Amino acid sequence: GSSLLTGPEGLMAKERENLKRLKCLRRYRQRYGVEALLHRQLKERRMLATDGAAQQAHTTRSSQRCLAFVDDVRCSNPSLPMTRHCLMHICQDTNQTLFKPCQGSEEVPCNKPVPVSLSEEPCCPLHLRLPPQMYVPEQVLAVSEELGAAPTDLYLSAAELQPTESLPLEFSD
């Protein structure tokens, strides 16, 4: 920064003072000597501790499997975050409140877990009941022979559509 401020005539006293302040501000938070060494060692220890903890948490988290048993065989799917069951068996957890089993229909029972929504009976997409149709299309009226042969005197010709008065220039096309 100082090379930009120096010119053929040099720096004025006010500019020298501002340059001195700028250099002090740039060095204000830098650590020197023993303080810099201790700070760097602390940062290295923190990095090792957080990297190790994150890596350990990742391996612990990835090794967690669903606790449900199907035909005396443990489920091999990974569990959902903060739970002990996978998505297929989440309804077996009595403490969870985010999923309910689908009620299905009388013909086809279904126990697929679905997220609880604003409706009282949440359903999977297969058993979703659509609301009744709101729009009823209008019935097409049959065109009778009488309407098809309308008299031509009801329509105006192109000459009759032309204006009879002359308009000022500002209103004309």
UniProtKB/TrEMBL annotation:
Signal peptide residue numbers: none
- Outline the extent of the KANL2-like probable zinc-finger domain: 72-127
- Which UniProt key words apply to this protein? Chromatin regulator, Isopeptide bond, Mitochondrion, Nucleus, Phosphoprotein, Ubl conjugation
GO biological process annotation, one example: chromatin organization
Instruction: Establish whether keyword Amino-acid biosynthesis is in the entry.
Output: no
- GO cellular component, as recorded: mitochondrion; NSL complex; nucleus
What InterPro entries does UniProt report for this protein, alphabetically? NSL2, Znf_KANL2-like
What's this chain's function?
Answer: Non-catalytic component of the NSL histone acetyltransferase complex, a multiprotein complex that mediates histone H4 acetylation at 'Lys-5'- and 'Lys-8' (H4K5ac and H4K8ac) at transcription start sites and promotes transcription initiation. Required for NSL complex stability and for transcription of intraciliary transport genes in both ciliated and non-ciliated cells by regulating histone H4 acetylation at 'Lys-5'- and 'Lys-12' (H4K5ac and H4K12ac). This is necessary for cilium assembly in ciliated cells and for organization of the microtubule cytoskeleton in non-ciliated cells.
The UniProt subunit note reads as follows: Component of the NSL complex at least composed of KAT8/MOF, KANSL1, KANSL2, KANSL3, MCRS1, PHF20, OGT1/OGT, WDR5 and HCFC1.
Q: What is this protein called?
A: KAT8 regulatory NSL complex subunit 2
